[in-house]
Amino acid sequence: MEHPLRFTRMARYTTISFMVIAILLSIVAVTLPTQAKTQSVTEAAITNYVSAQTDEALSDEDKIKAAIDAYFTLSIRKPKTSSSTRFFCFGGG
Question: Which of 25, 29, 31, 70 could pair with 45 as two cysteines, CB 3.0-4.6 Å apart?
């Protein structure tokens, strides 16, 4: 027959082991990046600008509107940096 103290100790270690595993799994789940990465507002503005500048079907007026929209989106959403004003340099036009 098993000793009651031995059973209590085994139950305690089992419970602690499950708690540690649960904590580790929750930490791993939180730190893993999500599969679907959402595009930020500034990235979307730059993407729209570049696609508008490279689209031959758009008129010059539409290309200018896309540039203005991207400029104001970047100036409102992003702090003033040199990269926010330099993105117009790599455009196709």
Answer: 70
pTM: 0.44
Burial class for 50, CB neighbours closer than 10 Å (0-12, 13-18, 19+): middle
53 closest CA partner among 68, 40, 41: 68
| pLDDT in the model for residue 33 | 66
Give the pair of three-digit tokens for residue 7.
């059973």
Where exactly are the structural domains of the chain?
1-32, 41-90
Distant-in-sequence, close-in-space partners of 41: CB < 8 Å, separation ≥ 6: 73, 77
Helix (H/G/I), strand (E/B), else coil: 38? coil
Distance (Å, whole) CA 18 – CA 86: 54
